[in-house]
Amino acid sequence: MAEGDIKTGSLKTIREGSAEILVAEHVFYNPVQEFNRDLSICVLTTFSRIYQREKSAERQRKNASDDATNGADTKLEAGVKHENGLRILEALSATGLRSIRYAKEIPGVKEIIANDLSKSAVESIEQNVKHNQIEHLITPSYNDAMTLMYMSTKPEQRFTAIDLDPYGHPTRFLDGAVQSIEDGGLLLITATDMAVLAGNTPEACYVKYGSVPLKTKACHEMALRILLRCIETTATRYGRYMKPLLSISADFYIRVFVRIYTGQYACKKSSSKQSMVFQCTGCEALTLQPLGILKPNPTEANPQQIKFGIPTGPFVGSRCEHCNHQHHMGGPIWSAPLHDEQFLAELLQTVEQEDSKRLTTIRRIYGTLTVIREELHDVPLYYTLDRMCGILKLESIGMLKLRSALLHAGFRVSYSHASRTSIKTDAPISVLWDILRCWHRLHPVKADRFLEGVPLTAILRKEPAKVYNIVEIHPDANPPSRKESLSRFPENPAAHWGPGTRATQMVSDNKMLKSAQNQNKRKQKRTPKGDSAEEESQNDVKADSESPERKVPKTITTDC
Ligand SMILES: C[S@@+](CC[C@H](N)C(=O)[O-])C[C@H]1O[C@@H](n2cnc3c(N)ncnc32)[C@H](O)[C@@H]1O
Ligand SMILES: [Zn+2]
Fold it and tell me: Which intervals carry biased composition (Basic and acidic residues) (predicted)?
């Protein structure tokens, strides 16, 4: 956000990225979403490059000589109309700020439709498009988003990218979006109803998304997986399927970037990418059970052939094997990877080349994407260090020691970008409990904590199956993103931050945002840089209790 935003009559002038917009109090503008817009620009810039490469390869396949004349290496520029470029629909545009930034900052755009159902919002879009002299790329549109998308389902009318950034949940727009997106096109979708997705009202989540959420410490990742599963099942109704490029949990919302393709055979694999989730009501152990399974069924004609089946279950007993409590069942969730590794690599290249003057949140984008790249992409969900130690009433073992014990024992472990104290690992939870049993030998829990029926009694009374190395720090225990002190789990972006309400007064919140950002900078400066890794690990745990998931105002509680 630029310094010196000024008021003009009842309008306020706001600068963000390359755009300058005039905003009235009654039109929605949320400064906290700058990270969301900056990140979307990086994603679309990368996607635009990939899109051109794919189109060029397609042309080459069709007619090699043609391609030489078409120019496979057309230089993509921002702010200039590219006849073969992206056709973007911003279906819920409010001030037009996002569309204007997309037009001015993403190379290789053909056209952007900036649509809103509110008359005053569309007037604001028109005014801002003129103010930014970007009429050659943006067409303002006054329509219901669904009507507009349903009118654009024929192949030649479809969009290359559709951005859905609604108030609350996006699910009522999905049916139109999956039908009006090009084959291989990109959907960029935000959901801000985190309280619902995080399990505060499971019945409401089921109504909106068709899945039951669980109150788990991994609720932010579960929210992403519920949204992704909802997009996938909406798409498969039309013989289309989804490939997630990037799925992010940030501040008070989630945002997913997925490509949509057409293919009946790929749709058949959909049930094997979705799972029900059992969570123990005592120790919170998580167990996933897929809806479908793929079995190799090679024939001479097709050695790659697979057979579709359903698993036998349930995958848990009627009582938890660790603590003897019963289970809750949630889901279905998307249990395939949340991100595409190849796309992430290319996206990070884009981010590295970005100008930090234009994208003010670039440091945070780089930090978050680096943590995401380090995530174990084949391991859904996670536990948290503080919660596991809390359940056993143990003094904290510290992140580095726990990660080291797992690595020494031959397991993989990573953080999740969604939680500062997350433990994402391919080790079964029985191994995590064993490591904590070893820790307990050195740091025993008080005898009066061993009450009948509580999970810690059942878990700590058992002997560990083996002795785990909780003393030596493993060389890989500290991931590069942490060693390099990247901006991994940012503080709250503003004092009274949140998704905003319909046509809010958040326009005037710039000052608040800046003051919170300054406070955060001061805090970051105070964090001693040369901390030993172990001290830093304790800081991580401590800081988690101050992390965004805890500080959300009551109205949008996303803690779980
Ligand atoms: C959260 S705001 C969008 C913010 C914007 N994308 C940005 O980055 O600043 C949601 C907008 O959706 C509009 N809206 C709500 N329902 C709609 C519908 N059915 N069709 C089109 N626009 C709609 C509202 O008028 C509002 O301006
Ligand atoms: Zn249990």
Answer: 55-65, 539-552
